[in-house]
Specification:
GO terms for molecular function: amine transmembrane transporter activity; carnitine transmembrane transporter activity. Residues 1-22 are annotated as: Disordered. It is found in: Cell membrane. Residues 30-270 form the ABC-type glycine betaine transport system substrate-binding domain. The chain is of the alpha+beta class. It folds into two domains: 6-13 and 22-108 and 216-282, D-Maltodextrin-Binding Protein, domain 2 (3-Layer(aba) Sandwich), CATH 3.40.190.10; 111-204, D-Maltodextrin-Binding Protein, domain 2. The protein contains twelve helices and ten strands. The chain has helices at residues 37-52, 64-72, 89-95, 146-157, 169-181, 196-199, 226-229, 231-239, 244-255, 260-270, 272-280, 285-298; strands spanning 6-7, 25-33, 55-61, 78-84, 99-116, 137-139, 163-165, 188-192, 202-204, 216-223. The strands form three sheets. Strands 4, 5, 8, 9 and 10 form a five-stranded antiparallel sheet that branches. A three-stranded mixed sheet has the order 1-2-3. The longest helix is centred in the N-terminal third of the chain and has 16 residues, at 37-52. It is globular. Residues 1-24 have low confidence and may be disordered.
């Protein structure tokens, strides 16, 4: 289990009081994540940030259920991949009592059924009337994802004569890309922020029954005890927060075939003040000035 500083010398029975613990310690962290493009982006960025702070970092990709179970069982130190309170609600209800909620790292996220704008329907309720044009299929991602279970609920609630095709995030976007290039009708499970909304003209189908719920946010979750075991690591992950523009820039590089770590490194190198704040807690000069001005106005 990682996240705890480990000493290279430990006191044994019979050591004298003058013995000291070697100050050279290994700082380690294990990050769990799901293979959504946004979570690939945030995880690889955080990996580089922690390496800059002196940590040896391991990242492990799992499905959503295994992610929550791994946090509850302390197999992972933390994740930046938790879509709450809607998308992964079932996993939070199952494991949340044994997991620490650290901070929101991305606001105003959404999931739903998405079609190209040339598709002439606007609501989930219209899918059955156009079943043949969609080949009776909704193209999904990995079967353990929260958006998949929500879509299964949507199929039941709207009595859709459709099958939900399990794939992966990459498989779904490849299918979407092929359909758009051929101007074929397709409906996919998708979320925002996502690079596909910048590359293609897409729209969410209206959801009058509210199956997909209100907007989500992405949270950083940690194993219980991490704050006490490694306050430095906990401090860094508690300060991690970024914007849609930030994550979009990394995801667009990923979509263009840039290797994951290289895409993350580009963002890290272009945002040194933000990275320094996450590591040290020292606010960027412009943000600190803005906060000081706000305080003066309110006094």
């Amino acid at each position: 289990m990682t996240g705890l500083p480990r000493t290279s010398h430990q006191k044994n029975k019979g050591d004298t009081e003058t013995d000291t613990v070697d100050e050279n310690v290994d700082k380690e962290a294990t990050i769990g994540y799901v293979l959504w493009d946004g979570e690939i982006a945030s995880t690889n960025v955080m990996k580089l940030v922690l390496e800059e702070a002196g940590y040896d970092v391991e990242i492990i990709a799992v499905d959503a259920g295994a992610l929550y179970q791994g946090l509850a069982d302390s197999q992972f130190d933390f994740t930046t991949s938790a879509w709450l309170p809607q998308t992964q609600q079932n996993y939070w209800e199952q494991y949340g009592e044994d997991i620490d909620s650290v901070a929101v790292n991305l606001e105003d996220c959404r999931i739903g059924l998405v079609v190209p704008t040339y598709v002439t329907i606007d609501s989930i309720e219209e899918l059955n009337d156009n079943q043949e044009q969609f080949n009776g299929e909704i193209i999904g991602i990995d079967p353990g994802a929260g958006i998949m279970s929500t879509t299964e609920t949507a199929i039941e609630e709207y009595d859709l004569d459709y099958s939900l095709v399990s794939s992966s995030s990459a498989g779904m976007t490849a299918s979407l890309t092929n359909s758009v290039e051929d101007e074929e009708w397709t409906v996919v499970t998708l979320w925002s922020p996502h690079w596909a909304f910048n590359k293609f003209d897409l729209k969410y189908l209206e959801d009058p029954q509210g199956v997909y719920g209100e907007a989500d946010h992405v949270e950083t979750l940690a194993r219980q005890g991490l704050e006490e075991d490694d306050p430095e690591l906990y401090g860094i992950i508690s300060r991690f927060q970024w914007t849609h523009d930030d994550i979009q820039s990394v995801m667009e590089d990923l979509a263009d075939g840039v290797p994951e770590e290289e895409a993350a490194r580009t963002w890290v190198e272009n945002n040194p003040e933000q990275v320094n704040y996450w590591i040290t807690g020292e606010m960027p000069e412009d943000a600190a000035t803005e906060n000081t001005s706000t305080e003066e106005i309110t006094e």
